[in-house]
Design goal:
Radius of gyration: 20 Å
Number of strands: 0
Structural class: mainly alpha
Largest sheet: none
Distance between the termini: 75 Å
Low-confidence stretches: none
Shape: elongated
Strand content: under 5%
Order of helices and strands: HHHHHHHHH
Mean pLDDT: 91
Length: 181
């Protein structure tokens, strides 16, 4: 029984290592394909990872690359679907937070402000608090809700470290709104 258990454990470790190496190889291939800026090819390469190795850490990162290619190609619908896949399948909560933030940016560009704000109201990690509040402010500005945007930007500034390069950008956004309401 001990030999069978030890053998089974070794076989499982070998299988997992092999899977991880295959996923890493596919991710490297995706990065090469990414330089082509061909959304279809990028999506095909990413799909190999997301369908073949969905539980790997590479799959959600591949999906992020595919979604970015789709946005650049003007295919927001597919980008949102890909980002939703990350929310539904990624193990890392940071990937969920990043996918929601990116979807909200697409929705902002499409003028779907209420939907974008609803998405941002989902729970997120502390590390994303400032970015979520900043995006919320951007959406509120676009919707003409300047007073609310000021509050969101101020809250974002309060959550960010002054050493964060993005801190200054949010500060400038707040200052650009001035005393207007």
């Amino acid at each position: 029984a001990v030999l069978v258990t030890a053998g089974g454990t070794k076989a499982w470790q070998y299988y997992q290592q092999k899977q991880a190496l295959q996923a890493a190889d596919l991710y490297a291939l995706l990065q090469q394909v990414q330089t082509s800026e061909d959304a279809a090819k990028i999506n095909d390469a990413a799909q190999l990872l997301t369908t073949g190795y969905p539980s790997s850490g590479y799959a959600p990162r591949a999906a992020l690359i595919a979604a970015q290619a789709d946005v650049q190609a003007g295919n927001n619908k597919r980008a949102i679907q890909t980002l939703q896949w990350i929310i539904d399948h990624a193990k890392e909560t940071e990937m969920h937070d990043l996918a929601r933030l990116r979807i909200s940016g697409i929705l902002l560009d499409e003028g779907k402000y209420d939907e974008a704000l609803r998405l941002l109201s989902a729970g997120h990690g502390k590390t994303f608090a400032g970015l979520y509040l900043d995006r919320k402010g951007d959406i509120q500005v676009a919707a003409g809700k300047i007073a609310e945007a000021k509050l969101s930007y101020q809250e974002a500034i309060d959550k960010m470290s002054k050493s964060n390069n993005y801190f200054n950008i949010v500060q400038m956004k707040l200052e650009a709104l001035g005393d207007s309401d």
